Amino acid sequence: MSSSETHLSDVTEPMSPEALETRLREIGEARYHHRHPFQLALQGGELDRCQVRAWALNRYYYQAMIPIKDATLMARLDDPDWRREWRTRLVDHDGEAPGEGGIERWLKLTDGLGLDREMVRSTRAILPTTRFAVEAYTHFVRDRTLLEAIASSLTELFSPKVIGTRVSGMLEHYDFVSEETLDYFRPRLTQAPHDAERALAYVREHALRADQQQAVLEALVFKCDVLWTMLDALQHAYVEGHRPPGAWDGESGLIAGATP
Ligand SMILES: O=C(O)c1cc(C(=O)O)c2c(n1)C(=O)C(=O)c1cc(C(=O)O)[nH]c1-2
């Protein structure tokens, strides 16, 4: 691994917006979860049904907390134009009515995998690391500058590619998933590029000083670490077999009639 991948070199002089964007994209290339072994195993068909269920169960907590994170961020935006822009994210996840939106579509994924909704929604069986990582993200957005909070969403610049690879790999390799089960991801392929483009425009416009640019780069590194850590936890518990006490046992909380 080259030093540019392992260390974030300090920003000493202000960069142009183009140079800043290049640095952000380099960070994504080196640190985004498209490189994680669990993601590679998921898309490569190397996981069993229990491991795929564990992924969907844990990722539900991320989905459920994203609108809370975005509501926190929105409350800090004093410009109505930006609030209007940001609120589409809430609608994307919560829908306009019960039964709509991204959280509901994620539950269709966990339904399709045979997981009981009450168990999924309660989040009681998720890994402690999943909880800590997702909370770290929501706290970061609450506590850091607005610029850093917005920059931390920039992982979405890289999500359409990993989603495309994940969906096609899962459809190819697992007979227990279908296009319908993976329907969550379809709208993300248009929502994510729109959201990321707006967040990037904000960052390019507002990160002008060297210290601001440094903070933006570090915010993206932080968010890559959040996503990476969530997959590390799944790898440790469900691939290497070190399941922490209280985490889903791979057997309970299944819908009646689901394949064990
Ligand atoms: O499937 C993925 O790999 C992936 C990654 C990310 C991301 O990069 O944070 C998000 C999503 N999906 C996603 O579905 C989503 O709604 C989302 C919101 C955000 C955010 O930080 O506000 N990231 C992501």
TrEMBL record:
Species of provenance: Kushneria pakistanensis
Domain Thiaminase-2/PQQC: 23-232
UniProt KW Oxidoreductase keyword: yes
Pathway per the UniProt entry: Cofactor biosynthesis; pyrroloquinoline quinone biosynthesis
Alphabetic keyword roster: Oxidoreductase, PQQ biosynthesis
HAMAP family according to UniProt: PQQ_syn_PqqC
Protein family membership: Belongs to the PqqC family.
Catalysis: reaction(s): 6-(2-amino-2-carboxyethyl)-7,8-dioxo-1,2,3,4,7,8-hexahydroquinoline-2,4-dicarboxylate + 3 O2 = pyrroloquinoline quinone + 2 H2O2 + 2 H2O + H(+)
InterPro entries assigned to the protein according to its UniProt record, in alphabetical order: Haem_Oase-like_multi-hlx, PqqC, PqqC-like, Thiaminase-2/PQQC
Record-given protein name: Pyrroloquinoline-quinone synthase
Lineage: Bacteria, Pseudomonadati, Pseudomonadota, Gammaproteobacteria, Oceanospirillales
Enzyme Commission (EC) number: 1.3.3.11
Known function: Ring cyclization and eight-electron oxidation of 3a-(2-amino-2-carboxyethyl)-4,5-dioxo-4,5,6,7,8,9-hexahydroquinoline-7,9-dicarboxylic-acid to PQQ.
Keyword presence, Nucleotide-binding: no
NCBIfam families, per the entry: PQQ_syn_pqqC
Pfam family, one: TENA_THI-4
